[in-house]
Amino acid sequence: MSDQYPELFRAANVMRDVHDRCVWSQAMTHERLVPYLVEESAEVIEAVESGDADELREELGDLLWQVLFHASVASNRADDPFDLEDVAATLAEKMIRRHPHVFGEETAETPERVLELWNAAKASEKSERRSVLDGVPMGMSSLALAQKVLDKGQKVGVGEEFLESVAASEAIEEEEGVPLLPQSEEELGDTILGLVAVARARGWDAERALRGRMRAVAEEIRAAEVEE
Hints:
The protein is mostly helical and 228 residues long. It folds into three domains: 6-77, Helix Hairpins; 83-128; 142-227, no CATH class. The protein has helices at residues 6-21, 23-26, 30-50, 53-75, 84-98, 100-103, 111-125, 142-154, 160-176, 185-201, 206-227. Helix content is 73%, strand content 0%.
């Protein structure tokens, strides 16, 4: 394997040398590395959106460095240590389970069928979960969190009032010919930016406002699950 991907193993060896011989790196913990992981992830996203292949290659390397760094830190843990080999093995085993149409006897002719198989495999792996919200990282940005929580809430009938509001606005648009809702992602971006501008002008924290609202929706979802 090292012969097939020599540069990947070279990077792993560089990380090991850095962690063994750099005093700053030796002082790092998983917790201290989190801000760098968040920053590098954001820079990958920016590179994707810019369409610059050279920039994307570099930023993916920086993100890979974070994976190598966490694995190196974990290899020195006193309790339950693991290394890059363990991380890679866990990943490969999970991806094989979640692609039975590739590695098993299932067939999938459409992307929708692939998602069905993926979700079935994931549900089997996470059978101990008791809520549709289990596994949703609440540390996501508020917009991404809102989209994820509303998607999960739809499965237990929570958040339907937001859909009803959209349906009502669309009905008015159709009857009066006056667009009330954004008609494209670009217009949606303008609308969201406008709301952030309103928040700024009034001294509100837009991130905190949406995150607080999503906590309330999450509580509604968990309450609905208890009632089922």
